[in-house]
Amino acid sequence: MYLPKQFNHTDPLIAQRIMREHPLASIVSVGEDGFPVLSLAPLQWQAASLWGDAPQAEHGVLLGHCARANPHAQLLANAAPTLVSFMGPQAYMSPGVYDDKQRVPTWSYLALQAKVQTQIVDPMHDRDRLLKCLIAQHEPAYASQWRDLPTAYTEAMLKGIVAFEMRITDVQCAVKLNQHRPEAHAAMHAAYAQGGTNEQALARWMQDLGLVA
Questions:
Q1: How many Å apart are CA 208 and CA 181, to the nearest integer?
Q2: How many domains does the chain have?
Q3: What is the pTM of this model?
Q4: Quick check: helix, strand or coil at residue 115?
Q5: Mean pLDDT over residues 161-187, rounded?
């Protein structure tokens, strides 16, 4: 990922927040023909593995699953290094935030790129345990419904997926909020605060990072 030093954010709490608030990730592996293969899947960040005998994960782990019919499942099972990307809020930025008219439009965004090592989760009771972690994250009230479903149904669902835990080995975090142009921060924040969902999210990030009062 192209990452100018002024936008390179190294605080692990910022990286974790992006992954938690924007869990739908792009998973990229190299296919047998040498061409990239991409899948979209929600991934849950955790500080440590669900399994005590797993290697130490300095940057945490990601839990997820995909359909067994997805060809990407076999690539993940090969345990080759994989690239995972998360996209946070993003929006256009007008040059109107500057007093100086010799400026051009740009785009603001928060994004994260991680290298991961994937471990397939088996047997079935471990897949069930992983799914329950995802349920607890996204809809805790559904847990009782999942437990009450007929065993034949839940086993069929579990057989239809490949569950995995990704150990993060490297992280790059981009926070592109015009940090190097503090003279424009107040106007930029005011414009984003009046915008749509993405713009308002960027305005909150500017506040949280101390770019505006």
A1: 17
A2: 1
A3: 0.93
A4: strand
A5: 96
Instruction: Decide if 185 contacts 153 (C-beta within 8 A).
Output: no
Residue 190: φ, ψ to 5°: -60, -40
CATH code at 42? 2.30.110.10
211 domain-assigned: no
CA–CA dist 19, 112 (Å, integer): 8
Residue 55 is assigned to a structural domain of this protein: yes
pLDDT tens for residues 22-81?
A: 999 999 999 989 999 999 999 999 999 988 776 677 899 999 999 999 999 999 999 889
Distances (CA, A) of 55 to 51, 64, 117, 135: 9, 18, 10, 25
pLDDT tens for 77-115 read 998 899 999 999 999 999 999 999 899 999 999 999 999
Residue 109 lies in a domain: yes
Asked if 27 and 44 touch (Cβ cutoff 8 Å), the reply is no
Long-range contacts of range 35-41, CB-CB < 8 Å, 24 or more positions apart? 37/71, 37/72, 37/75, 39/66, 39/70, 39/72, 41/65, 41/66
